[in-house]
Amino acid sequence: MTMHQGRQLTLRQMEIGQTGTVIGILGGRGLMRRLEALDIRPGKKVTKVSSTLFRGPVTLRVDNAQLAIGFGMANRIIVEVG
Amino acid sequence: MRILLVGNPNVGKSALFSRLTGIHIIASNYPGTTVEFTKGYMKLGEEQAEVIDVPGTYTLEPTSKAEEVAVEMLKDGDLVIDVVDATNLERNLNLTLQLLERQVPVIVALNIWDDTRHRGINIDVAKLEELLGVPVVPTVGVTGQGIKGLVRRLPEAKVPKTAYSGSSSDERWARVGNIVSQVQSLSHRHHTWRDVLEDVSDHPVGGVFIALVVLLATFWVIRLIGESIIGYVTDPLFEWLWTPLLMKVSLALGSGGFWHSVLIGNLIAGGIDYFQSFGLLSTGFYIPLGAVLPYIVSFYLALGILEDVGYLPRLAVLMDTLMHRLGLHGYAIIPTILGFGCNVPAVMATRILESRRQRFIAATLISIGVPCAALQAMIIGLVGQQGGQYVAMVYGSLFASWVIIGLILNRIVKGFSPELLVEIPPYRLPPWRVIGEKLWLRVSGFIKEALPIVLSTVLVVNILYTLGVFDAIANIAAPIVSGLLGLPKETVVALVIGFLRKDVAMGMLAPLALTVKQLVISSTVLAMFFPCVATFVVLFRELRTRDTLKATGIMVAAALIVGSLQNLIL
User: Is the CB of residue B52 less than 8 Å from the CB of residue B38?
Assistant: First the structure.
């Protein structure tokens, strides 16, 4: 049996259409809580829907909900893909 | 008996509330409008129960001022109707479990039930009820489906037998995951026109294109409807019914004297000129009902549609990059757009922003750069007579000031501005019933609030004129106004009256025979100079004294600088 170690990226680095699993959030308790309330937390599968030009927000799909996340925040959410 | 409606934003809570209580309320598709909670009544058996629409919240551990209100209100409810979006079960059940820990009877309304089918979501309602230990009723707030069943089962609401108080958030999410895996199964999801439209408007280039089309179409529709109401309804009514009546009153008063000048005002070329006569019954009625009301109707109709189809959060995403530079984030576009109707609800809506710094910047920028519908109607009516390019100069100056002052505030105001984090709800067809109710509420609200203030302002203006008070004020401020802004000293009076009502103040410019340049300068200064008294009161409430005074100082300084620059350049 081989263990598959996926690649680790930030939300911003993900390709559009790519799905990954959240493995960590680089931020304080306040940021964690804001994200957690919207069901973005370690272990959660998210799909990147789009990004905006000029360091604009990143759009994600989490289950059936679509969320927009500011550029800097998207840089602090780490996902594992493939 | 007090019933609370609690749930995430965008779950159709307000529509459900309107179905339960049958009164007119604000119901919207984005979080923020219900920050000020709405209250209604319903019959429950023989008892009259109070129903409260609690502001939407994702969690009972609040992350914004609006969410704090929600948690605060939970303390005095006798029963909670937890409104759950059936298409987003997991996230919604997290709030449900937090509610169940609170020792208050709960019943769950599984709302947006009609949407689960085409999304390929199957939920075992009986199983969910068993696992939660409280009644679960599928509902469709927009159509009213399931509401009767919900009302019938209200008495069954209870505190579940198994208490989970004090569980950690990890334990809670684990339980939610466990429940969802037992009650929900997913099958094929049907692609709809909606998915296509959503894909296009979330695309960076397609989104900008759609935003331009939407905004241009909105302005065009607002103007078309506003002008049509003026041309085909209000102006004919004033001309054929009101003018002849006023002329009779004028004759009966002997065409002059104190009461004539208060009630009818000055006759222009032997007749009544609704912009210039300035009597209580002539201009006093014409400004709110003839000039402003048509645009209030068309603006709020357009806004209601944009709100309820779910477009505004998408605009927030597109605006985020710009707003970020101004120390805000994209979501601040929602209070800003509200400001084009009236600055009062706009300043109140800044509460949806997370930090004090953001609320200060947003409220200040709205007061400076966002003219309300009443002022805009008068600007279009007066400046527009001289040509559209002059109206564009006023709007261009306001927009430039809004951006530049935002850039400056972002550099100098201390504090922290969190980033955008917002749910983008699916597009929904406009629920015309809810839009109609909301339009009626806002328009009747305008008439009730504006008419008495406009009339008393016109009365005060007439009395102060008669007493010669204005001459004194005009002489004192003359150096600034003439020297810096290049305006005749009489415009000072209009600027002062702008504190009471800006539409009346614009009306006072009409008889002054200003040049086009002076009209542009005075409209811009009037828009930026000072908030009207109603906005001033909410600024005090939202920002407290110190920040309000700071904001006011910024407004006065900005108005004088921009007005002087216009005077130099134009």
Answer: yes
Please give the CATH number for the structural domain made up of B2-186. 3.40.50.300
**Residue carrying the six token digits 């020792």:** B103
Residue whose entry in the numeric block shows the structure tokens 């009207």: B532
Strands of the sheet with A77-81, listed across from one edge: A7-10, A77-81, A19-25, A45-51, A58-62, A65-69, B421-424
**pLDDT at position B36:** 61
Q: What is the pLDDT of residues B413-469, one digit of tens each?
A: 999 888 999 999 988 888 787 788 778 878 887 888 788 888 998 898 888 888 888
Given pLDDT bands bounded at 50, 70 and 90, which one contains residue A1?
very low
pLDDT at A44 over 80: yes
Q: Chain A residue with minimal CA distance to B313?
A: A68
Closest CB to A59: pick one of B90, B202, B418.
B202
Q: What single-letter DSSP state applies at residue B238?
A: I
Put simply, whether A59 touches B (Cβ < 8 Å) is: yes
Chain A residues close to B91, C-beta within 8 Å:
38-39, 62-63, 65
Q: Please identify which residue in the block is written with the tokens 């009164």.
A: B23
Best probe of the B interface among A38, A41, A77, by most B CBs < 10 A, is: A38
Instruction: Write out chain A residues lying below 8 Å of B207, CB-based.
Output: 52
**pLDDT value for A69:** 95
Q: What is the pLDDT of residues B107-150, one digit of tens each?
A: 999 999 998 988 889 999 999 999 999 999 999 988 889 999 99
Q: Does B184 touch chain A (CB under 8 A)?
A: no
Domain ranges, ordered by start, for chain B: 2-186, 204-416+438-569
The beta-strand segments (E) located in B130-263 are 136-138, 184-186
Is B119's CB within 8 Å of A63's CB? no
Pick from B63, B88, B423: which is nearest to A33 by CB? B63
What is the pairing mode between strands B421-424 and B106-111?
unpaired
The dihedral region occupied by B470, where left means phi > 0, alpha psi between -120 and 50, and beta the remainder, is alpha
Give pLDDT < 50 ranges for chain B. Answer: 26-34
Class of CATH domain A7-81 = mainly beta
CA distance A31 to A28: 6
- Residue B137 is predicted with a pLDDT of 97
ipTM of the complex model: 0.92
Token readout for B264 is 């009818």
Which of A12, A47, A64, A76 to probe by mutation at the B interface, max B CB count within 10 Å?
A: A64
Contacts of residue B192, defined as CB under 8 A and 6 or more positions apart, other chains included, come to B118
Write the residue in B61, B173, B202 that is nearest to A33 by C-beta: B61
pTM: 0.86
Report residue B199 as tokens. 């894909």
